[in-house]
Amino acid sequence: MSEHIGFLLNDTARMFRRAFNARTKDSGITALQWRVLTYLARYPGIRQGPLAELIEVEPITLSRMIDRLAEAGLVERRADPTDRRAWLLHLTGAAQPLLDDLRQTATAVVAEATEGLDAGEREQLAALVERVRANLSRRECQKEKETA
After folding, report:
1. Does some domain include residue 17?
2. 8 Å CB contact between 17 and 35
3. Looking only at Cα atoms, what is the longest distance across the chain?
4. pTM metric for this prediction
5. Which of 15, 36, 143, 144 has CA atoms 20 to 30 A from the CA of 98?
6. Position 102 in a domain
7. 76 assigned to some structural domain
8. Tens-place pLDDT, residues 28-84
9. How far is CA 9 from the centre of its chain?
10. Residues of the domain holding 107
């Protein structure tokens, strides 16, 4: 293998982000903002701290991003009834149509990236990458337990 798998995966992810960002330039939504919106759809009412950990950005970076998404009318902060210092994040009604459009964009990018692969090869590729992710995820969990 001429390149290490880690380099190939990282470089491919970078190229995915660049292709996605180019297609969503007019919407003003970046790939990272799309990830934030997607996680908020999966975990409505999540606090900023755990969300920052999920997307692996500094809390201040996420806070600024949430500010921009709130200004765009896509996200709202609601007071946490159990902790008056904390905010719970929720998508607004305006976010769902945008998420649908962004999913279509992502599907188009994946189609472009996997051009020339048949359905079986695409499924195999997804399964293999999922196994790599699961392996790394298990190691991350083990490492966290060891340091706790």
Report:
1. yes
2. no
3. 54
4. 0.79
5. 15
6. yes
7. yes
8. 898 999 999 999 999 999 999 999 999 989 999 999 999 999 999 999 999 999 988
9. 16
10. 5-113
